[in-house]
Amino acid sequence: GPDATATLHARQNYFRLLSHNGDFDAARVQLDEIMARMDPDDPEQLDLRHDTWDSLANLLVNTGRNEEALASALVNLERAEAELGPYHAKTVRALNTIGYVHALSGDFEPALEYFRKSADRARENFRPSDQPYYSARLNVGAALSAMGRDEEALEASREVFEILSTEFGRRNVSTLRVM
Predict the structure, then answer these.
(1) What burial letters (b/e) apply to 118-146, b meaning 16+ CB within 10 Å?
(2) Is 89 within 8 Å of 113 (Cβ atoms)?
(3) Are 77 and 87 in contact (CB under 8 A)?
(4) What is the pLDDT of residues 93-131, one digit of tens each?
(5) Which of 17, 61, 66, 113 has the fewest CB atoms lying closer than 10 Å?
(6) What is the pTM of this model?
């Protein structure tokens, strides 16, 4: 049925396709449908709920609605910490999303703060070669670079490159993205 978890996940995938192709209005319709149909008490939909809230913040910032995006991202972080704990992958991503919203708004100091919090928490629960950690560290480097702190930015990127090349080799797609 339309409220089944599998159906809602299919809508989430359709949202990603629409958003990726720049059809933000249609993407928003999908998110609104998902949010209207999610069961807040269904533990099977926990990941879906956090993915949807995170997607909403990203959609809002990508359409220039930065204040709404930040408010949405902060609510998502609060929910993730309460429901999943401070070191869960969804909580780490929520921190990263707040940093992303700040960065796209041109507020690099708070962006750097949230990217660092994301990396610090990811370090507690993931290996350095896991995406939540290295992604946050790359974002730290990007924020530092945007602030004109190029040496520190280069060091953050170098750290990630060394981690990934040691773990996966220099020709791995994740390693190559850092170069």
Answers:
(1) bbebbbebbebbbebbbbbbbbbbbbbbe
(2) no
(3) no
(4) 999 999 999 999 999 999 999 999 999 999 998 888 788
(5) 17
(6) 0.87
